[in-house]
Model the fold of this input.
Amino acid sequence: MRRPAHLAALALVLLGVGIAAGCGSQGEASPTAETVVGTVPSTTTPGSNVKGNPAAGKVVFTSAGCAGCHTYTPAGSKANVGPDLDKLPEYASKAGEPLVPFTHGAIVSPPPKYVPPGYPTNVMPTTFGQSLSQQQLADLVAFLTQKS
Done:
């Protein structure tokens, strides 16, 4: 029995579509990393594209109660419950992180990767990441990481 020519043509078209669909017509697949080794550089305050204002960050430092626990010369604070924030660049270096991401992470997700000896790791409130706005966080990080 002879099959009509249009059925044979249709079969070839469908076969061609099937081949094309199997050869990337759905887009390219790329592997997804399960493990990241090293750090990813950051050019903005982590978690936002908001530019911080150090002067506004000083207000956040005071209003959020940071001065009650930390020494930080630009804020005029001399508390010693938490680490001395005048040494943040040293702490970031010991953690192997750039200063801005280290500082941001220490605020929003304590404890940071490095806590100086003699300070507890479970005292820093974990709520600042939720209670401060992205702008307040950017301002606070800008204040804490400003060049003196």
Summary: Helices lie at 5-22, 54-63, 88-95, 99-108, 128-131, 134-145. The domain at 54-145 is CATH 1.10.760.10 (Cytochrome Bc1 Complex; Chain D, domain 2). Confidence is low (pLDDT under 50) at residues 6-15, 17-25, 38-44. The CA atoms of residues 72 and 91 lie 14 Å apart.
